[in-house]
Amino acid sequence: MVFAIGLLVGMVTVVMLLRALDARRTWEDRYPQATMHMLDAQVQQLRASGAANRCAATDALPRLQSLRSLANDIEPAFADLRDDARFAAHAGDLRARLDTALASPPLHCEGAQAVMTSVTEGCNACHRDFRR
To answer: How far is residue 10's CA from residue 44's CA, in Å, rounded to a whole number?
Structure first.
């Protein structure tokens, strides 16, 4: 019985300690991961629209605009890589791909798939070089 109580108190203490450590993190600590999560969420919503056969420009345009806006935050989010020329080139390439997609939004599912492929290739290129 004493062992079970000790185990329970130990588990509660560990959870409290982990939550206290997590609470000490600032927005700057969370910024890189949050930026990547938001980019991924927009890409997943764009994929879901394609899977649901909702590929008109009016379906893709809001997601592409959100992706382009979030792409502006890539360098500020990763301050330690901001001055790396390869990193800046990857971020610039992603923005260029999104600008191209926004200049002529996809009008059908084949076009939306081509845009998704282009954006995914831009993301993967950077992840191959810099993912931790």
So the answer is: 39
Rounded Cα distance between 67 and 46, Å, is 10
Tokens of 7: 């185990």
HEC secondary structure over 75-127: HHHCCCCCCCHHHHHHHHHHHHHHHHHHHCCCCCHHHHHHHHHHHHHHHHHHH
132: pLDDT strictly greater than 70: no
Average pLDDT, the chain: 92
Pick the CATH number of 32-130 from 1.10.3720.10, 1.10.287.130, 1.20.120.10, 3.40.50.620: 1.20.120.10
The span from the CA of 78 to the CA of 61, in Å, is: 27
pLDDT digits (tens, 9 = 90+) for 65-122: 999 999 999 999 998 898 899 999 999 999 999 999 999 998 888 989 999 999 999 9
List C-alpha distances in Å: 20 to 13, 14, 23, 26, 77.
10, 10, 5, 12, 24
Its pTM stands at 0.80
105 touches 64 (CB < 8 A): yes
